[in-house]
Amino acid sequence: MAGFKLLVGLGNPGSEYENTRHNAGAQWIEALARQSQCLLRSEKKFSGFFGKVSIAGEECYLLIPTTYMNLSGKAVQAVCQFYKVLPQEVLVVHDELDIPPGSVKLKKGGGHGGHNGLKDIIAKLGNNKEFARLRLGIGHPGHASQVANYVLKKAAPDEYAKTMQTIDESLRYVDDIVKGDLNRVMNQLHSFKA
Q: Catalytic residues, which ones?
């Protein structure tokens, strides 16, 4: 399978959202940028923080949209159009309510599962759902009515530490992910528990 050219981490901009559960995807990209010594710069034309990096011998683009979460597709669409990236060459890293903190799942394609960031990306990519997702578990508050409040809050320190461990663990496989060797990564990552 072909690999990925654009790695996107979802979150909300601004210091009040920093380290909230909803920003786990953005934190993953920040950690990858640090690891690969890539400077993410604010790019107006991409509505986000953007950088180029070489991973597994491939040039990749890193993106953290600076629109709000429910408008994430605008930034993804802009980079895809500018660099001629196909939807199936995009990996979106995001927080996932249906997975407990400390766990991570990788999947190819699928719906948005109520995630507003994914919903907008699917729409802006012309209803194409073929991009891959790295889903960082944040757990569920227990009731749908509590979700909006829950994702915008900072996690308790132990829970936050689990998310950080999950990010570190999944970054160990970033070469395989970029090369598109997803099955190998799934076998390793899906059994990981922080």
A: 22
